[in-house]
């Protein structure tokens, strides 16, 4: 025969149940277990299990609580929808930025190619001017500093 529990233990279990389901534990880690229910109520697990109606109710409410946590409702759903919309917007912006950067990269590559060609042309002109006896060199005489010009 199961010994009934006292009215004080029953009241303590009910208060503990309310605290755990409201996520406000005072004596446990807050997980929704019968062990934590007993710990919160300040009774042994054996005493808690003797209050089978309270334990069954607690387990049922704990299952509902877990189900709600898995399937958000109301404002949580709206918050999730808003975050998902933000993700879509950010991804669109990212794709547009990538397109812009690729176009700029092409333009910069063209500028580098043009500057390279100009550099080669200037190097060719400098080499032509530096060659003694070249026609370009006959237009003017380059006299190094410190030397006399001879005719």
Mean pLDDT: 86
Report low-confidence residues grouped into runs of 5 or more: none
Based on secondary structure, the structural category is mainly alpha
Order of helices and strands: HHHHH
Kindly report how far apart the N and C termini lie: 136 Å
Number of strands: 0
How much β-strand is present in the residues?
Answer: under 5%
If you compute it from the alpha carbons, what radius of gyration comes out, rounded to the nearest whole angstrom?
43 Å
Shape: rod-shaped
- The number of helical elements comes to 5
How would you sum up the major sheet? none
| Portion of residues within helices | 55-70%
Write the layout of secondary structure elements.
Elements: H1 7-21, H2 34-41, H3 45-50, H4 52-70, H5 75-130
Question: What features would you describe in this structure?
Answer:
With 151 residues, this protein is mainly alpha-helical. It has a domain at 7-70. Helix content is 69%, strand content 0%. It has five helices and no strands. The chain has helices spanning 7-21, 34-41, 45-50, 52-70, 75-130. The longest helix is centred in the C-terminal third of the chain and has 56 residues, at 75-130. The mean pLDDT is 86.
